[in-house]
Fold this protein.
Amino acid sequence: MIPAVINADVLSLVAFLLEELVSSCLSCSALYFFEFLSCTAFLFTLLLLILLSTPLHSRVGISCWPKLDFVYTAVMALLFLIASIVFAAENGGSKEEMTAVVFGFLATGMFFSDVGYFLKTRGLSFMRNGTPETSNGGVAAPAEVEKLNVPE
């Protein structure tokens, strides 16, 4: 999970930097949306990586890090896909814009691959083995196989 997140983070940073090289735009709203999303993806992913790789995660008070990571990554993948499609459709065709679009789609692919890896290794984090988690946070005990005090 961490290498895919780092790759998505690096690719979103590269997409942001390439977008910053664009000197003029035909549809600046698409450019600004892509800029906002690529910068946000980079900064929030970096924040999550710092929190999870240091002891700071215990001080934040969030107890469901896998759920947070899954939801964040899925939302970023969808938003990055939308931003990349919009920016690809409404750009001036300069080399900088086209390269930024390519890196936007690469970052989108990395976010989606991280979601896929998460689902493959852990399944949906909201469900555990197909059954809902217990509400008190404990693990449900398996049903007894043998009955006690069975009259013969």
In short: Residues 2-127 form one domain. The mean pLDDT is 78. The longest strand covers residues 127-128.
